[in-house]
């Protein structure tokens, strides 16, 4: 049995942020990572991915992005930043160490990988809000001859030339993958179940994240009205193209439903040009075609599920129901749950996910410093 003071699970942005904070406070810790690399999730994202949040508000504690980075950091540069970050703070995860069980026993947490069993007073879970793909099982999926996969598997549009591709979802991955496939000579369509909120990345030159930070100070109904007004000048009604806006405001959507709008980086233009077609929800699949709830039937070669992710915390966390809501998201985030456990990186906050990771990492560091009476 290995003994530690603090165990951190996951070496993505959240795990690295808290590692740097603890290093700074001289609190010893052990960082466990299931893959063989840091920033595993980011390394496996699609080639064209860029942050939607701006570099000024997306860096981790103590290290801003380099001056020559673009305002919207690309995937490759973000991965480079994570590597530079781990070197600067001398963060050395133990790789190939997937935590398969985490359980409370008396005063300690027992954290188990396939190789070791660790006893630790504190455990910080940084395994990601977007941990496991949400897979949809449609009627007829078994007979469909085309390929079906989750957006997590999508890398680029190179192999999609002349292919008819249906992308299911109304989030950022859906919009960006559709655009990428179109730019690579494919024929993309989006299947949108109910509503889609699409907002420009910038309104009159002001990044959406800055608007969100300002609106975070306002009461939700006022912020909803203000954002409705701004969007009414900056965007057009997409209902003629088959996209209905949600009946609730965009700020309540993010704050109360934790649903991030699709941030437009060129998808809307191609929808208007007819290069990205819109379909409603799928009702079932046949050998070569897809059937929709409005009765349409269309032939497609490929079906991509851009249907999001779930935290999958219940897979390794004992009594997880005590800590999670019905979506599997921790009820208490960024603070001691009360038993020496912390969840970091589970707050889909309006002012930016990465920005919030930095804030919460510093809060957790301070809390641990007090607990450890340093
Ligand atoms: C497509 C996409 C675009 C995004 N764009 C932005 C953006 O523009 N701005 C923004 O602020 N946020 C953005 N986010 C949200 C958020 O910033 C990222 O999801 C970010 O990667 C979260 O960091 P994390 O460390 O919490 O999780 P992850 O990056 O997912 O890292 C989790 C780590 O834990 C490891 N792990 C998982 N399970 C175990 C286990 N059982 N044992 C050991 N290790 C484990 C994984 O291998 C991984 O390395 C985006 C998210 C996605 C999916």
Structure write-up:
- This protein is an alpha/beta fold and 374 residues long.
- Helix content is 26%, strand content 21%.
- It has nine helices and 20 strands.
- The chain has helices at 13-24, 40-43, 75-88, 172-183, 208-215, 220-234, 250-257, 267-272, 353-371; strands at residues 2-9, 30-32, 101-105, 108-112, 117-125, 132-133, 147-150, 164-168, 187-191, 198-200, 202-203, 206-207, 262-264, 277-279, 282-285, 289-292, 297-299, 302-305, 309-310, 341-343.
- The strands form six sheets. Strands 1, 2, 3, 4, 5 and 20 form a six-stranded mixed beta sheet that branches. Strands 7-18-8-9-14 form a five-stranded parallel beta sheet, covered by helices on one side.
- The chain is globular and about 65 Å long.
- It starts with a strand and ends with a helix.
- The mean pLDDT is 95.
- The protein binds flavin-adenine dinucleotide.
- Residues 9-15, 32-35, 40-42, 45, 49, 51-53, 58, 98-99, 126-131, 173, 316, 345, 352-354 line the site of flavin-adenine dinucleotide (FAD).
- Residues 9-15, 32-35, 40-42, 45, 49, 51-53, 58, 98-99, 126-131, 173, 316, 345, 352-354 line the site of flavin-adenine dinucleotide.
């Amino acid at each position: 049995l290995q003994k530690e003071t603090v165990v951190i699970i996951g070496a993505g942005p959240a795990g690295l942020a808290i590692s740097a904070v603890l290093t700074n406070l001289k609190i010893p810790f052990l960082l466990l990572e299931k893959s063989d690399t840091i920033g595993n999730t980011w390394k496996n994202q699609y080639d064209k991915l860029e942050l939607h949040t701006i570099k000024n508000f997306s860096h981790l504690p103590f290290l801003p992005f380099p001056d020559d980075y673009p305002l919207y950091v690309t995937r490759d540069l973000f991965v480079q930043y994570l590597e530079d970050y781990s070197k600067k703070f001398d963060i050395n995860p133990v790789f190939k160490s997937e935590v398969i069980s985490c359980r409370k026993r008396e005063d300690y947490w027992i954290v188990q990988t396939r190789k070791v069993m660790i006893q630790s007073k504190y455990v910080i879970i940084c395994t990601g809000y977007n941990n496991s793909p949400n897979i949809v099982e449609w009627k007829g999926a078994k007979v469909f001859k085309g390929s079906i996969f989750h957006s997590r598997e999508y890398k680029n549009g190179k192999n999609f030339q002349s292919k008819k591709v249906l992308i299911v979802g109304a989030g950022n991955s859906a919009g960006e993958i559709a655009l990428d496939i179109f730019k690579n000579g494919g024929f993309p369509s989006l299947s949108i179940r109910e509503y889609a909120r699409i907002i420009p990345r910038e309104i009159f030159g002001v990044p959406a994240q800055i608007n969100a930070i300002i609106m975070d100070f306002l009461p939700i109904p006022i912020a909803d009205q203000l954002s409705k007004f701004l969007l009414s000048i900056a965007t057009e009604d997409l209902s003629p193209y088959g996209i209905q806006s949600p009946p609730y405001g965009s700020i309540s959507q993010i704050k109360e439903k934790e649903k991030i709008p699709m941030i437009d980086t060129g998808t809307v233009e191609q929808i208007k040009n007819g290069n990205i077609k819109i379909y409603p929800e799928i009702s079932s699949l046949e050998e070569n075609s897809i059937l929709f709830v409005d009765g349409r039937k269309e032939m497609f070669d490929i079906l991509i599920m851009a249907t999001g992710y779930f935290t999958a915390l219940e897979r390794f966390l004992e009594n997880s129901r005590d800590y999670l809501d019905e979506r599997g998201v921790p009820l208490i985030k960024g603070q001691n749950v009360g038993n020496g456990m912390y969840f970091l990186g589970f707050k889909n906050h309006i002012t930016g996910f990465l920005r919030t990771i930095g804030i919460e990492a510093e809060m957790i560091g301070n809390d641990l410093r007090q607990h450890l009476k340093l």
